[in-house]
């Protein structure tokens, strides 16, 4: 469990810092005002400090929960035909746990990315003044609603790719191979869940007093006023960001787990 905690934290931080500019571009494309009105290509690192604070604990919470549930469910639901179900439930549980940590930092990050606030301290005081603690969890339900379908696609695919390759090669999957499988699985999941991400972004960026912004209300407003195509705003940067992010995230995680469990990295860990 300690290995999953540290490995997950390292993996999450590596991804969020390396790919932050792509995330900013994606977020600005999804805003109601549009890309250029939200800042265009300027200040693409706005909000990075917020992400750094929440990235490691959020990713660690995900993997600790994921690994724990995966082990427990594998015993309760034995059989290869049940493996996808085990991975779906375990990943969903991991996302629910991670979102308790991730959502407050995500709210601050996205509002800084789109120019609503210029500093973390100003964002914190303004959100607290407007909506209290609830303001930091604005969009929590929608984030979970986005992440569960995402992980139910990504992780069963990722685990299946690893299983097929390990059986084919007759050996455990190397971290660089896990990175490749994570990239493909993440890209597929990202494309399919982009509409949910757009709705989540709109909810988090809302400054409505009281913080009560409904999921269906937001979805209907986007379709009615801007057209269904708007639900796929930012799909390109999102797929690229998550494909690369998935390779780093899962590759670093597998490598870190190997190092922490075995005390060393295989010579093949990062050989391409």
TrEMBL record:
The chain crosses the membrane at residues 43-64, 239-261. Signal peptide: none annotated. SUPFAM superfamilies: Mitochondrial carrier. Keywords: Membrane, Mitochondrion, Mitochondrion inner membrane, Repeat, Transmembrane, Transmembrane helix, Transport. It comes from the Eukaryota. It is a multi-pass membrane protein. GO terms for cellular component: mitochondrial inner membrane. One of its GO terms (biological process) is transmembrane transport. Solcar repeats lie at residues 3-72, 82-164, 177-259. Belongs to the mitochondrial carrier (TC 2.A.29) family. This is Uncharacterized protein. It comes from Spizellomyces punctatus (strain DAOM BR117).
